[in-house]
Design a protein that fits this description.
Elements: H1 2-8, E1 19-20, E2 27-28, E3 56-68, E4 75-78, E5 83-94, E6 110-128, E7 131-145, E8 154-166, E9 178-189, E10 195-202, E11 210-216, E12 223-225, H2 229-234, E13 241-248, E14 253-266, H3 275-287, E15 303-311, E16 320-325, E17 339-345, E18 351-364
Parallel strand pairs: 12-13
Antiparallel strand pairs: 1-2, 3-5, 3-18, 4-6, 5-6, 6-7, 7-8, 8-9, 9-10, 10-11, 13-14, 14-15, 15-16, 16-17, 17-18
Length: 365
């Protein structure tokens, strides 16, 4: 199961700030987070009772393509036509709600928090020595987390996963080439974000029962839930290397990751592979959600930063890369650091799954 979840971590950084108390106190390597999804950073905090995101949400849709890898022992491929959608908005979270674990409940305490929902639908096949099996993957996540002013501290996450994933580098037969996951995970965090309760329901079991586990969450580095890591990285400045902790529900603990941030790059309008991205950005400019001016040739030029997410280990395994629209001026962040492309490297040299922005809208909820 662990291998399967690693493949999903999209699904599944910049300038870490080091703070030290004046008299030899606790060292903190937390990463600074900024609301880079806003055109301007609002004074007095970006998330409050009057937040526009309580009534409107950003909806981004991505087209999915597959790039076959070099593994000659077997193939694990994904079909054209898959979709990945993200929704980003805000909700009021009641810490005394009946759904909150009793030990985390707080009377008369409500926070306006961000909500991030992702929906993945993808079909494919695995083939070993001529034997083939088709499959359909469906993954939905929902996460709540606090404002950038509060370091995007996790509040709650839910992952509904039905997935078939690679299991070996050179399987002897079809049955040993893949693993199937049919699980529901829910993670509740206390308001300080330093402890979590993880509820797991393995629906593939003969008699599915909810299993509950508790986990401590470290305070040395910034902690995010893996279900919203793409939003967390969107808040980083686009230089340097960051170390962060990600809560991965399937492993019932946090794992340390590094995020390496590349320099500013130009998005090539002439590259056919990026045509859907360019069209989506142009349409978002036309709608007024993004702001960008045309050059002397009446063309809008876009730039981006590539961030690479990898396990902090001597053997980190496959890494994922994320392209965010470049923030050239934080006072007028014209392209909102929009996530325009993701590339997820599969294990065992089986290939890459690429997600390219195809639409970006801001709609009324």
């Amino acid at each position: 199961m662990k291998k399967a979840i690693k493949v999903l971590a999209l699904a599944l950084c910049a300038g870490s700030t080091i703070l030290m108390a004046a008299c030899g106190g606790t060292v903190s390597y937390k990463t600074t987070t900024s609301p880079n999804w806003e055109i301007r950073n609002p004074a007095g905090g970006e998330l409050n009772e009057n937040s526009d995101r309580l009534t409107r949400k950003e909806v981004a849709t991505y087209a999915i393509t597959f790039e076959k890898g070099s593994n000659t022992s077997y193939s694990f491929e994904y079909n054209q036509g898959g979709t990945y959608t993200t929704e980003f908005y805000a909700v009021k979270y009641d810490w005394n709600d009946a759904s909150v674990p009793e030990e985390y409940r707080l009377s008369d305490t409500t926070d306006v928090v961000y909500a991030y929902k992702t929906t993945l639908a993808l079909t494919g096949s695995v083939t070993v020595n001529g034997a083939k099996r088709d499959f359909s993957n469906a993954v939905t996540t929902l996460s709540y987390f606090r404002s950038a002013d509060n370091n995007l501290t996790p509040v709650y996450s839910k992952q509904d996963i039905v997935c078939t994933s690679p299991n070996a580098i050179a399987p002897a037969d079809l049955a040993s080439a893949y693993v199937e996951v049919d699980c529901l995970y829910e993670v509740y965090y206390n308001r300080d974000g330093n402890s979590a309760i993880i509820e797991t329901t393995d629906r593939s079991a003969e008699n599915p029962e909810k299993q509950t586990a508790s986990a401590g969450v470290g305070s040395e580095y910034s902690v995010f839930d893996a279900s919203y890591v793409a939003m967390a990285m969107r808040s980083f400045t686009s230089s340097g290397t960051h170390t962060i902790d990600l809560m991965r529900a399937a492993e019932k603990q946090t794992s340390r990751f590094t995020v390496a941030c590349g320099g500013e790059l130009s998005l090539d309008r002439e590259n056919e592979s990026f045509s859907t991205i360019v069209s989506a950005l142009d349409a978002a400019v036309d709608s007024g959600y993004l702001i960008a001016g045309k050059n002397d040739e009446n063309v809008i030029n876009y730039s981006y930063n590539e961030l690479t997410l990898a396990l902090a280990s001597e053997m980190p395994g496959p890494a994922s890369t994320y392209w965010y629209a470049h923030v050239s001026n934080s006072e007028l962040n014209t392209c909102r650091a929009a996530l325009i492309r993701m590339s997820e490297t599969m294990p065992f040299n089986l290939g890459n799954i690429v997600y390219s922005l195809s639409s970006l809208e801001y709609i009324t909820i």
